[in-house]
């Protein structure tokens, strides 16, 4: 029997519960767990030395497969380096099983190396934290370990999904002898049956009555993965019922002539009558966060009479300060049933014309189309080389049926202001759980390791250099395309009002830097290219996005003052926008 048979049982349990992906950071205290994962024939392991990057790579994998991914690290400060990824996974509801090796508790604060207080180290940023037994002399210890292992795995997969932590104090010897064999199982699997929230018939009747009684209905979709079934029913509601459907680019709501995606442009309008005309009687939301600050401010100042949030769990969030009803239900199933029931009722009553106010949707769509034209005209101009215009040209050339991972700060805002057409079939991801710049590149690497599609990471220079250890491993896949917008500083601080007015802007906010991504790309074995003009950009993009045997990095150098001036010019044009 292996010296740490309980760890072999833990790994076998994970496999039995369909958790078969692991990201491991090397360490000695974690060696028994590392070997258990590495020697299991059904586990795919990846080794990433930097724990912070490892956590985000695991998040990127879990984001794709929509199942928990194991993250392993050794004891001590290594554990703390997982915290940014754990927090992002918690707020983005991404399932991770975080396994941290530890020294037995009696060695804490005894001048022993790599020993810190690891129990519940992630605080409220995990769904739950468990402590593994240090000793297995009594049979109850194995029973206890099996029980918490089953509970932890199931908890990570239960809505709302998220990270779960098991801290494992391990005694020496940590390494097996040469003649020791590993035997996985048998292990006790406690089956947790799936359950979906269901609404009783009388509740559905009440919801249908409230829907019918509301004249101006608005459906807003927050961040979420591409869901063809959801998009299909929303499109029918827009076309047949004339219900406006709005969302950000991270909601994966494409630009198709029906959906409304230019919220941040036209909601900047100061005309109070227009804003009042846009106020809904009934707002239905689903998904996670919204990028558009203007949309949030609009709904806070012009609240609907009713606001329903549809989600598969009961954790309450009220970002628009108007919530009146939390509906615990799968959003796609909810909208499909709502459409079917209301449509059938109208058929029975021969009332096919009972729809939302056509003029209400028309107001939203007219403003959206006008904003789209204005943005398109603004970005078409090539007299000035600036970031946002560059981003538009990049979006136009993205490969069909590919993925776009957008870093936080200005890149995600540029992409949201531009949008993507439905026929491009590009799925958008962004770390908007905490909206930090740490880990954006690592998440894209994790995704690229999991899909055969082209994965494009669009990232600013500060976020890139902050997370360049995402490329410090032997994993960087050939389908990864990295685009670095290098303006040599944190350009967002020059664009937003507060810091841009401060005399300390250059030194304390933008934090200017002279670096290039070239050496990082070459160290990672990536094909490197650099452009500084529209002509150079047009020349390299076809080859850049073409399939190849090596990953590629494109560095686009712009002037941050020019970027800020052009964005300011855009804002002046918005003020001139009239319905």
Automatic annotation (TrEMBL):
Its EC number is 2.2.1.9. Coiled coil: none annotated. Catalyzes the thiamine diphosphate-dependent decarboxylation of 2-oxoglutarate and the subsequent addition of the resulting succinic semialdehyde-thiamine pyrophosphate anion to isochorismate to yield 2-succinyl-5-enolpyruvyl-6-hydroxy-3-cyclohexene-1-carboxylate (SEPHCHC). It catalyses: isochorismate + 2-oxoglutarate + H(+) = 5-enolpyruvoyl-6-hydroxy-2-succinyl-cyclohex-3-ene-1-carboxylate + CO2. It is an enzyme of class 2 (transferase). Belongs to the TPP enzyme family. MenD subfamily. Its cofactor is Mg(2+); Mn(2+); thiamine diphosphate. Residues 440-556 form the Thiamine pyrophosphate enzyme TPP-binding domain. This is 2-succinyl-5-enolpyruvyl-6-hydroxy-3-cyclohexene-1-carboxylate synthase. Residues 232-406 form the Menaquinone biosynthesis protein MenD middle domain. Binds 1 thiamine pyrophosphate per subunit. Pathway: Quinol/quinone metabolism; menaquinone biosynthesis; Quinol/quinone metabolism; 1,4-dihydroxy-2-naphthoate biosynthesis; 1,4-dihydroxy-2-naphthoate from chorismate: step 2/7. Residues 10-114 form the Thiamine pyrophosphate enzyme N-terminal TPP-binding domain. Pfam families: TPP_enzyme_C (PF02775), TPP_enzyme_M_2 (PF16582), TPP_enzyme_N (PF02776). GO terms for molecular function: 2-succinyl-5-enolpyruvyl-6-hydroxy-3-cyclohexene-1-carboxylic-acid synthase activity. Keywords: Magnesium, Manganese, Menaquinone biosynthesis, Metal-binding, Thiamine pyrophosphate, Transferase. Homodimer.
């Amino acid at each position: 029997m292996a010296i740490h048979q309980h760890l072999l049982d833990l790994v076998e349990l994970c496999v039995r519960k369909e958790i078969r992906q692991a990201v491991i950071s090397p360490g000695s205290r974690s060696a028994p767990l590392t070997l258990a994962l590495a020697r299991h024939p059904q586990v795919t392991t990846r080794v990433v030395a930097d724990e912070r990057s490892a956590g985000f790579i695991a998040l990127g994998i879990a984001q794709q497969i929509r199942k928990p991914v194991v993250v392993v690290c050794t004891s001590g400060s290594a554990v703390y380096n997982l915290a940014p990824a754990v927090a992002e996974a918690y707020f983005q509801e991404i399932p991770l099983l975080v396994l941290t090796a530890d020294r037995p508790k009696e060695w804490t604060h005894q001048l022993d190396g790599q020993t810190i207080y690891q129990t519940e180290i992630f605080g409220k940023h995990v769904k739950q934290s468990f402590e593994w037994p240090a000793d297995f002399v009594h049979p109850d210890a194995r029973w206890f370990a099996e029980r918490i292992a089953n509970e932890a795995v199931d908890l990570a997969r239960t809505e709302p999904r998220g990270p779960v932590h098991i801290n494992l104090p391990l005694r020496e010897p940590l390494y097996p002898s040469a003649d020791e064999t590993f035997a996985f199982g048998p292990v006790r699997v406690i089956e947790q049956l799936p359950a979906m929230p269901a609404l009783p018939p009388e509740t559905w009747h009440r919801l249908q009555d409230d829907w019918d009684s509301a004249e101006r209905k608005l459906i807003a979709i927050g961040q979420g993965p591409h869901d063809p079934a959801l998009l299909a029913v929303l499109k029918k509601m827009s076309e047949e019922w004339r219900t406006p459907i709005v969302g950000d680019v991270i909601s994966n709501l494409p630009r198709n002539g029906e959906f409304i995606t230019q919220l941040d442009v036209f909601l900047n309008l100061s005309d109070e009558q227009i804003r009042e005309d846009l106020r809904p009687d009934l707002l239905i939301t689903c998904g996670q966060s919204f990028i558009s600050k203007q949309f949030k401010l609009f709904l806070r100042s012009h609240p609907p009479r009713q606001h329903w949030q549809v989600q598969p769990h009961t954790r309450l969030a009220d970002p628009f300060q108007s919530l009146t009803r939390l509906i615990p239900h799968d959003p796609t199933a909810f909208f499909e049933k709502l459409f079917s029931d209301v449509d059938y009722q109208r058929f029975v009553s021969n009332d096919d014309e009972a729809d939302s106010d056509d003029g209400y949707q028309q107001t939203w769509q007219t403003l959206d189309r006008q904003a789209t034209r204005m943005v398109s005209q603004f970005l078409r101009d090539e007299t000035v080389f600036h970031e946002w215009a560059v981003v538009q040209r990049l979006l136009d050339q993205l490969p069909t049926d590919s993925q776009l991972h957008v870093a936080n700060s200005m890149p995600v805002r540029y992409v949201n202001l531009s949008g993507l057409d439905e026929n491009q079939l590009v799925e958008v991801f962004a770390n908007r759980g905490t909206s930090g710049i740490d880990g954006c590149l690592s998440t894209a690497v994790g995704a690229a390791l999991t899909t055969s599609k082209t994965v494009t990471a669009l990232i600013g220079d500060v976020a890139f250099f902050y997370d360049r250890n995402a490329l410090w491993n032997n994993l960087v896949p050939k389908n990864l395309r990295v685009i670095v917008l290098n303006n040599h500083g944190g350009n967002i601080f020059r664009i937003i009002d507060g810091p841009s007015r401060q005399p300390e802007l250059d030194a304390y906010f933008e934090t200017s830097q002279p670096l290039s991504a070239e050496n990082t790309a070459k160290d990672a074995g990536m094909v490197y290219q650099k452009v500084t003009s529209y002509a150079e950009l047009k020349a390299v993009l076809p080859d850049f996005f073409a399939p190849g045997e090596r990953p590629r990095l494109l560095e686009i150098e712009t002037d941050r003052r020019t970027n800020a001036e052009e964005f300011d010019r855009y804002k002046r044009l918005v003020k001139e926008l009239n319905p």
